[in-house]
Amino acid sequence: MIRKLQFPWQWFQRPSLSLQMMAVGLVMTVGFVVIALLAPAFEAWGWLQNPTDSLLNPIHDPPSLSHWFGTTRQGYDVFSRTLFGTQAALQVVILATVLSLIVGVPLGLLSGYLGGRLDRILLFLMDTVYTLPGLLLSVTLAFVVGRGVWNATIALSIAYVPQYYRVVRNHTVSVKTELFVEAARAMGASTWAVISRYLFLNVIQSVPVLFTLNAADAVLTLGSLGFLGLGLPADVPEWGHDLRQALDSLPTGIWWTAFFPGCAITFMVVGLSLVGEGLNEFVNPLLRRENWNKSSKK
Fold this sequence. Notes:
The two termini are 15 Å apart. This protein has one domain (18-38, 76-284): MetI-like fold. It is 70% helix and 0% strand. It contains 11 helices and no strands. The longest helix has 37 residues, at 78-114.
């Protein structure tokens, strides 16, 4: 039986569950990006209170028309801090995932292609780091380097470099024995030419999926660092720090100071995870083949 071939743009005519989830995840993720970009403008127009300015008479008001998400015991507007916390989350998460990608992918390519002692040394170092729990490693590094945007970025990125390295290195080891790579070497192509022209595009299919999943994990890890007092400075609106400040308020029934920052963390993690799940269908040929089978039966 001849199976009818489907082109990528035809996947959306009968979208699978994964593609539908990716669409939802993209809407959620783009929504957070828009919020992060517009929050300063809202403050300048007077629609938002400054997230670092407390009220003259601090009182923990419940959600109302004047303060949509209520206020904290210190007099901060929860709605303003939640929106501005999006900036801190996206800034650190993007920097950390991009930095780990920039370091991990080239190391994986060189290690997998060159092999030998370099491969053994890098593999030992990366496996050692990879065996450590990511959160524990990030907490330890944050404790050593201190608080700050770049310090949190370094603490997170070091934990993610081995993941990019392992994925790219394993793909490189399997691809470098292909005939087109051996033909390029036989024709005198340099190491740089082989890696950049023949290996790179063939081994990075899984990197976008790993990027989104690491970004989702980075949101949780950054929130955990802030909750432990090891993330960003105290004067920077950050969801994990706000959750820590809300601990004393929860026993007295002041639920809104923890509820809304917690929801923000949850929705951003869910959005990025759904994007990663949808991307996995594009880069995984087995999933695409399964969708083709289902579509051909309809």
